[in-house]
Predict the structure.
Amino acid sequence: MSNTGSTGPNTELREMGTLDITDSRTKKTYQSKILQGGVEGDTAVRAMDLRQIKTAPGEFGLMTYDPAFMNTASCKSAITFIDGDKGILRYRGYPIEQLAEKATFLEVAWLLRNGELPTQSEYDGWVHDITYHTYVHENIKTFLQGFRYDAHPMSMLCSAVAAMSSFYPEAKAIHDPEQRNISIVRLLAKLPTLAAFCYRHVKGLPFIYPDNDLSYVENFLSMVARMSESKYEGNPVFVKALEILFILHADHEQNCSTSAVRAVGSSQVDPFSAVAAGVAALYGPLHGGANEQVLRMIKEIEHPNNVAGFIDDVKSGKGARLMGFGHRVYKSYDPRAKIVKQLADEVFKQVGMDKDLEIALKLEEAALNDEYFISRKLYPNVDFYTGLIYRSMAFPTDFFTVLFAVARTAGWLAQWEEMLNDKEQKIARPRQIYVGYGERGYSTKLTNPFPKVGKDSARP
Ligand code: ACO
């Protein structure tokens, strides 16, 4: 059973000073407390403090305008710390480098959720529970078989995770710690099974059931790759590499998909539906879909000699962006990218260096020495090398983001539960600044409001 109420660090925001704001319209001065979280946490003022700033009593009051949440903290969180300028990433205080080197993925999943590393008996129970729940209802197989042979596995996974909500209607009881726990265990346990089934369907291969004698990662590889052998034995270099990649991808604070899980979860929907929203957000090419796009970009470049021309096209805006470069938060080297690059070296020792890796290395070198990328602080992100590793492990390109989703489920669930336990959180509902027409009268431009479409116009 999980520990849902860890004592942990003090999560209250501390008052550090005050901010005086003078409204030039009224010449009135208002005061807002400057708040800080954690030992090295960021400072902020409460956006709601601005609401008191008005020119007349009936007015709504001042809001902040922040498209894409460039400078808005939507929550307090004790899970993941990032210092984007220094290239630091920690889960619950532990540096990502140490976790990647020494921990297992399930140990990290426990840590993310509970705030502390598990004891041996906690870990044994956690591994047992997750292993015990790896099977999915047989109807899920029929459901997945309904997809076309060329369906993108991320759209299959998104639908399958959402469909799981219908198999566990009791998961709606999100305020019941028992129900919350079993839903979290089920999601972590079944995501690899669903992901592997998506893969097998696209490949036209029979589904392989979980093997509960294997570790989390090895079992996943078995469900993906096993053919006629009676017992699957994974390549230890690949098993270790995937364990590390899962740890690196397990959480990354308030990114697009995590914010989607929190926002959808804030409506108090069940966690299967909230996590399906996370999978949908991750699918996008500017987020988790970037690892797939990196490989497609490398294929398009075709030869190391074409790298310089490609970089020129990126800079002039003629071509696409350099995929796998840049990050909203990291304005120096992404610490995960450093680890992934080392990992790539180890995996390539096994499978051999190839032209695509040569192109990637040349791209990285060209970009890191180019004023355009230096001045914009664009460095390789985690996705730059992961695609190359996945491909060398024989995963098809459109499966890369699925691997990311399996790992990120640990973070989504920890963040979802943290949100539910946060008394300050309510249903997410941003404001807008309306810039459309003022009121105007309706006068139709139609002459026939119900045109006939015709019986022969239906298309599948
Ligand atoms: N290639 C070329 N130019 C870039 C790139 C890139 N990869 N990324 C940003 N820029 C440029 C922009 O054109 C812009 O230039 P300008 O100031 O001359 O207009 C400047 O850098 C700032 O870019 P923004 O889009 O404002 O930066 P933002 O923080 O919004 O974007 C993002 C971050 C989406 C990750 C962006 O860097 C990008 O599109 N990268 C490529 C996709 C990618 O690798 N995504 C994975 C992110 S990691 C993850 O999700 C796991």
Remarks:
- The chain is about 45% helix and 5% strand.
- The beta strands are 14-22, 29-36, 43-44, 80-83, 88-91, 94-95.
